[in-house]
Design goal:
Layout (H helix, E strand, L loop, with lengths): L11 H13 L1 H9 L51 H100 L1
Helix pairs in contact: 1-2
């Protein structure tokens, strides 16, 4: 630092004197807390420190400074510069959109054709399977009819068998009687 030049802030001695004054004098402490000091304070502890002359706004003592957010800078005033090739660029962009749309239409038509072929194949298979089901249902009905007829014949055969068994038992009893009568006669 060159002689005669002033530093941008208070000297360390002034800072020390101000902090000492704030510790021993309530008025000095309020002035420091206000954040509005423009000069150093000094206090001896015997009387009150002179704070009015050291404040930028003496009426603000007792108020606490509140930090506020800085407002954002205004948006710059921007102007569009017309593009000399805007019409040509728009035509090229529109042409690309048309080409893309045509490609999408072609792809959609191919997908529709493939889906239609699949639907027709599945319809044909469905008809074939229904015909097989109908044929099998007819076959099942015929087999059920055959089974019912067989059950009737089985029931009749069991009745005939039961009657034949009864007849065998009766005839064997008669044979036994006849043999017994014959053996008594001999």
């Amino acid at each position: 630092m060159t002689r005669g030049s002033r530093s941008p802030g208070p000297s360390p001695t002034e800072v020390e004197a101000t902090l000492t004054a704030a510790m021993v004098d309530e008025g000095a402490a309020a002035a420091v807390r206000s954040g509005l000091l423009v000069a150093a304070l000094s206090a001896t502890g015997v009387g009150s420190a002179e704070v009015v002359g050291a404040l930028a706004v003496p009426e603000a003592v007792g108020f606490v400074a509140v930090r506020r957010e800085a407002e954002p800078p205004p948006r710059p005033d921007l102007h569009l510069v017309p593009d000399p090739e805007a019409d040509e660029k728009a035509r090229r962009a529109a042409s690309r959109v048309v080409e893309d749309a045509r490609s999408e239409v072609d792809a959609a038509r191919e997908a529709l054709s493939a889906a239609s072929d699949e639907v027709e194949a599945l319809r044909a298979k469905s008809l074939q399977l229904r015909a097989e089901v109908d044929e099998l249902k007819g076959r099942i009905a015929q087999i059920e009819s055959d089974l019912e007829e067989n059950d009737d014949e089985l029931s009749d055969a069991e009745d005939v068998k039961s009657e034949a068994g009864d007849t065998v038992a009766e005839t064997e009893a008669e044979l036994a009687k006849a043999e017994a009568a014959l053996s008594k006669l001999r």
